[in-house]
Structure to design on (508 residues):
């Protein structure tokens, strides 16, 4: 069995648990099958809540990406015993799911050799050579001995505190009681952080590099540290806001952009990021105001030109958008943001060939940044009716950053549009596992099952979607089709005259 097939079966099983098709106990039994040992002897296991893979490094389970092929049948052998709490119920389990452990689980011994895998490891225990003799001392003698040892401990603690803690706290305390002036305590030297303000550019550069490699959560941590290090500098907040926008956390995006403006109202980059934050929040007029102010502050600022071009497109001001995008490209021909702005202009104008060339250039400039592939895939699916090409881009986005739910769900929609409903089931199940709060995820999964002529499995998902949102049209139509014996169909995507703004992701 290959890893992809194990993932498909896992998300199918998780989806059945979510709608009550399987019980929690059945789920716990079945999920134990999704584990294996690779050719190097390393154990791999899928987390029962997240569906992410974990590897056992000899001391703990750590996140990782397993090899594509499984050398031995999953579930045929038993990995090293661990201690922990099962994700599904909170009860102790012989083999806990790794992604629920709040601290690394300590393993008593290294994993057994392959030939002993069928034997559960036993704790190491050395029996005593002889029974320990009973002590003849008891009663009052024990109490007196304990008191004497306690007194010795207090005296030792007194000496240590009075000689190693500044200000001699013990002597000062008793001196105060008898009227002596306590000794003046020396002020301890303040220990500063190893990172000084001079190192701020390097910290920001490292964050930018991490972001370009789709390590967005680590990048955000870098920007956060930079913002604390330089509390009056707007740049860390600008970068922080930009990274949050790519994650879909639009409310936080706007907050950080506004904080950057408070630090530096006349910073062109701050105004440009505020323009993007407003635009992606649907506040087009506010976006135009911020973007135009950014250009006024610095007409040669590439982000200002690129971001205001998108705002002009959202306001249906094509001539202004074209001028701003052209200016951005002239200022920085190697800027991914400049090519993105030009790509959107061509896309809205319907110039397919020119648009695709610009989108490809955007991806080429930042090939390891998941958002570029996600957005390019959406353009292919929505604007140019190329779902097969969209699938490839969304798969790349998911492989680069598997926690971005919009890319996972859009991969499913692209597969449906490419008439591959069976293949769409797995990404929809994965998206639902990561976030089961909205009706859209259940409706999409129901549609995938329905289009695959599996209405029996589709109906529970449509019904669950309607419980969460009685007005969900996709679930309403799909449920009606299934109950009447029809095969549900994917609604046709209407042509758009403005750019797609990235979807908002609601944090858990």
């Amino acid at each position: 069995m290959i890893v992809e097939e194990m993932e498909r079966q896992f998300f199918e099983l998780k989806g059945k648990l979510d709608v009550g098709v399987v019980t929690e106990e059945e789920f716990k039994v079945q999920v134990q099958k999704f584990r294996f040992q690779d050719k190097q002897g390393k154990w791999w296991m899928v987390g029962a809540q997240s569906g992410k893979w974990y590897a056992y490094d000899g001391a703990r389970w750590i996140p990782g990406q397993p090899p594509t092929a499984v050398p031995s049948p999953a579930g045929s052998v038993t990995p090293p015993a661990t201690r922990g709490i099962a994700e599904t119920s909170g009860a102790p389990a012989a083999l806990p799911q790794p992604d629920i452990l709040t601290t690394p689980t300590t393993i008593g011994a290294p994993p057994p050799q392959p030939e002993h895998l069928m034997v559960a490891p036993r704790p190491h225990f050395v029996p005593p050579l002889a029974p320990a003799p009973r002590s003849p001392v008891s009663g009052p003698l024990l109490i007196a001995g304990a008191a004497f040892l306690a007194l010795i401990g207090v005296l030792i603690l007194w000496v240590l505190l009075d000689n190693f803690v500044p200000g001699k706290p013990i002597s000062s305390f008793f001196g105060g009681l008898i009227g002596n002036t306590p000794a003046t305590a020396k002020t301890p030297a303040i220990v500063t952080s190893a990172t000084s303000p001079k190192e701020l550019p390097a910290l920001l550069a490292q964050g930018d590099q991490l972001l370009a490699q789709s390590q967005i959560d680590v990048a955000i941590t870098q920007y956060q540290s930079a913002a604390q290090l330089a509390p009056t500098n707007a740049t860390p907040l600008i970068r922080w806001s930009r990274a949050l926008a790519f994650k879909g956390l639009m409310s936080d995006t706007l907050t950080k952009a506004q904080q950057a403006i408070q630090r530096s109202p006349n910073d062109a980059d701050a105004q440009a990021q505020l323009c993007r934050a407003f635009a992606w929040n649907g506040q087009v007029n506010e976006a135009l105001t911020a973007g135009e102010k950014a250009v006024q502050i610095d007409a040669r600022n590439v982000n200002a030109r690129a971001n205001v071009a998108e705002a002009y497109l959202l306001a249906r001001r094509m001539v202004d958008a074209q001028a701003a995008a052209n200016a951005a490209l002239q200022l920085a021909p190697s800027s991914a943001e400049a090519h993105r702005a030009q790509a959107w202009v061509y896309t809205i104008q319907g110039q397919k060939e020119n648009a695709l060339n610009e989108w490809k250039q955007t991806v080429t400039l930042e090939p390891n940044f998941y958002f570029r592939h996600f957005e390019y895939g959406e353009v292919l699916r929505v604007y140019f009716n190329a779902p097969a090409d969209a699938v490839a881009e969304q798969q790349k986005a998911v492989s680069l950053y598997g926690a971005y739910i919009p890319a996972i769900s859009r991969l499913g929609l692209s597969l449906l549009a490419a008439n591959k409903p069976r293949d769409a089931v797995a990404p929809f199940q994965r998206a639902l596992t990561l976030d089961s709060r909205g009706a859209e995820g259940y409706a999409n999964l129901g549609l995938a099952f329905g289009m695959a002529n599996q209405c029996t499995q589709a109906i529970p998902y449509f019904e669950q979607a309607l419980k969460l949102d009685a007005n969900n049209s996709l679930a309403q139509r799909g449920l009606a089709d299934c109950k009447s014996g029809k095969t549900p169909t994917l609604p046709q995507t209407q042509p758009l005259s403005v750019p797609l703004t990235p979807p908002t992701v609601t944090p858990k």
Notes: The chain is about 55% helix and 5% strand.
